[in-house]
Automatic annotation (TrEMBL):
Lineage: Bacteria, Bacillati, Actinomycetota, Actinomycetes, Pseudonocardiales
Key words, A-Z: Cytoplasm, DNA damage, DNA excision, DNA repair, Excision nuclease, SOS response
Domain UVR per the UniProt entry, residue ranges: 208-243
Family annotation (CDD domains): GIY-YIG_UvrC_Cho
Domain GIY-YIG, residue spans: 16-95
Protein name per the record: UvrABC system protein C
Record-linked SMART domains: GIYc, HhH1
Length: 659
């Protein structure tokens, strides 16, 4: 494995200017391409302490055998050169925004004498107009079937078109009015092209003008007593409106925009793009990619936006891929602007041949649409993480990989994970989740309200949870079985119910949310209790590192391995369970504290009110009669509670707004 210090450029030789750089492996192959405002600042960041780098960046610099750079005059030139080099060299460590499938589009072959409408997948060609992409081919066929009665254009292949021209009879679509039958001369070349161009205009967003024109023709036909033609136009208008209803209006001003959002962790990111044309969503795309930290100081979201814009639109222009006209819309809405936003906007404008606005929506319809795209990105990321959870083969592979990577005696068929949640040291709670055979066993989840170590930090809190959980297991061990247990009864089974006791079985693997100190604390507790058959690890949130007790270096699981996916699921489930309990406990404590100083309201009555209303917000909103109707609360006490909460509501509400 190459050492980055062996190929680090000499001090002062890297120019402090914008440019593009390439990392090459010892064989000379380009493995990474990047751009920078300042080559000196960016490249020096790669040669910092290797252990402090992002895992993917660390792998890249230890794989490379050299670095070289090219100085340019502007950031726009750097963007263009970076994209060209990525396309030319296809570096393995650069993220490529390629679909995991080929999305279908609706193609209109305008370069042919008699243009054809059809579903298409594959590389883009000159002279063909594309609409989409669509998520499913059936969506295109459904829309096309609706519109053919209004725009009866040719949809058949060249062979079918030629054959029906030779026999002099149209196909079935020609007989039922869904094709103008240019093959047999019912319309000439110019008339058929006009039909196809009207179809393209309609899909391009010129819907209102088309409907108004047909309505005028319908009215004129009715005035001339051509009722059959008027009825046919009426049906055509209905078909157009049904097609329009399938594409909901999301931006009332008819904006052409792409809306981009991300959901990510330290290793991967999910990207979602909504293509909006004429105010309507015309298509949607999504990717899940590996993240790489290129050493820039900008935020993670800004870095993702920067990489996405330069590669996605460059690929679209090169492939002539377009939802309508130029592949670059007039406006691109992003969650955060990249550091070189002006340069990126100028570069996109050059691709479009006109000005492109790069914006972060703050309010109104555009902000609401951005939130929708963000929800889709989060859902896609969640599905990506869980996509193999139900696969028995994948779960078995994950458990086997954990056994091999962690050096366990057996596969960890039962995994328990401990997490701590609190708010600035208050309302400290712990969670314990259980996974058996790689699947969550929610009936055995446990939560802990921490008392002893609540003010001593996460390490002490984890130690308390582990001590309380395994004290139960130790007390139920066979050598300390309860009196009256029948001889030969299975350990851990309640003799009365025949069901397992709480905490009766130990895990093969105990996971704690944290790094070395947390893992050491859990291992020390198990040693004090005399439990030696449970393996302990800690999983750090930031880089998904696995820490073994008393080991100075972490274990790094492969990012795309089944073992890593399983560890992420276990950790995330424990975190979710802990946060839910913390929020519930904190809400009750807020209600209790608000009732502490009310005269005549003791602990018992406070508990009754808490159980009845559930939250402080509901109790504040309750009327005097509703409070008085709670069992055990008399009229005087109800009046005191109502007056006290009504008097404090404005002040407390103001304080909450300030928070």
């Amino acid at each position: 494995m190459p050492d980055p210090s062996t190929y680090r450029p000499a001090a002062g030789t890297i120019p402090d200017a914008p440019g593009v750089y390439k990392f090459r492996d010892p064989g000379g192959r380009v493995i990474y391409v990047g751009k920078a405002k300042s080559l000196r600042s960016r490249l020096n960041s790669y040669f910092a302490d290797v252990s402090s780098l992002h895992p993917r960046t660390r792998q890249m610099v230890t794989t490379a055998g050299g670095v070289e750079w090219t100085v340019v005059s502007t950031e726009v030139e750097a963007l263009q050169l970076e994209y060209n080099w990525i396309k030319e060299f296809d570096p393995r460590f650069n993220v490529r925004y390629r679909d995991d499938k080929s999305y279908p589009v609706l193609a209109a072959t305008l370069h042919e004498d008699f243009p054809r409408l059809h579903v298409y997948r594959g590389p883009r060609r000159k002279g063909v107009r594309y609409f989409g992409p669509y998520a499913h081919a059936w969506a295109i066929r459904e829309t096309l079937d609706l519109l053919l009665r209004v725009f009866p254009a040719r949809t058949c292949s060249k062979g079918v078109f030629r054959r029906h021209g030779q026999i002099g009879r149209p196909c079935l679509l020609g007989y039922i009015g869904k094709c103008s039958a240019p093959c047999v001369g019912r319309v000439d070349q110019d008339e058929h092209r006009a039909i196809v161009e009207d179809f393209c205009d309609f899909l391009s967003g010129k819907t209102d003008a088309m409907v108004r024109r047909l309505e005028k023709e319908m009215a004129a036909a009715a005035e001339e007593l051509e009722f059959e033609r008027a009825a046919r136009l009426r049906d055509d208008i209905g078909a157009l409106k049904r097609a329009m209803e399938k594409q909901a209006v999301v931006l009332g001003d008819g904006t052409d925009a792409d809306v981009v959002a991300f959901s990510f962790d330290d290793l991967e990111a999910a990207v979602q793009v909504f293509h909006v044309r004429g105010g309507r969503v015309r298509g949607q795309r999504g990717w899940v990619i590996d993240r790489i930290d290129d050493g820039d100081e900008q935020s993670a979201v800004a870095s993702l936006v920067d990489r996405f814009l330069s590669q996605f639109y460059g690929d679209q222009v090169d492939s002539e891929e377009s939802t309508d006209g130029s592949p670059v819309p007039r406006e691109v809405l992003v969650p955060e602007l990249p550091a070189d936003a002006e340069a990126v906007a100028d570069w996109l404008g050059g691709l479009r041949g006109g000005k492109v606005a790069l914006r972060v929506p703050q309010r109104g319809d555009k902000r609401a649409l951005m939130e929708t795209v963000e929800r889709n990105a989060k859902e896609a990321f969640t599905q990506h993480k869980l996509r193999r959870a139900g696969d028995l083969t994948a779960r078995s592979a994950a458990l086997q990989q954990l056994q091999d990577d962690l050096g366990l005696d057996t596969a960890p068929l039962r995994i328990e994970c401990v997490d701590i949640s609190h708010h600035q040291g208050t309302d400290v709670v712990g969670s314990l989740v259980v996974f058996e055979d790689g699947l969550a066993r929610k009936s055995e989840y446990r939560r802990f309200a921490l008392r002893e170590a609540a003010t001593e930090g996460d390490v002490a809190s984890i130690a308390e949870v582990v001590r309380r959980r395994f004290a139960k297991y130790r007390d139920g061990a066979p050598e300390q079985a309860e009196p009256g247990t029948p001889p030969g009864a299975p350990p851990g089974i309640d003799p009365d119910t025949g069901k397992p006791k709480r905490f009766a079985y130990p895990p093969n693997l105990l996971v704690v949310d944290g790094a070395g100190p947390q893992a050491n604390a859990a291992a020390d507790v198990l040693a004090d209790l005399g439990i030696t058959d449970v393996a302990v690890i800690g999983i750090a949130k930031r880089l998904e590192e696995i820490w073994l007790p008393a080991d100075p270096d972490p274990v790094i699981l492969a990012r795309n391995s089944e073992a890593m996916y399983l560890m992420q699921r276990v950790r995330d489930e424990s975190h979710r369970f802990a946060i839910g309990y913390h929020r519930q406990k904190r809400s009750k404590n807020l209600l209790t504290s608000a009732l502490d100083d009310i005269p005549g309201l003791g602990q018992g009555r406070r508990a009754v009110l808490i159980k009845h209303f559930g939250s402080l917000k509901r109790l504040r909103a309750a009327s005097l009669e509703e409070i008085g109707g709670v069992p055990g609360i008399g009229p005087g006490t109800a009046q005191a509670v109502h007056s006290a909460l009504a008097g404090e509501a404005p002040a407390r509400g103001k304080a909450e707004e300030q928070q």
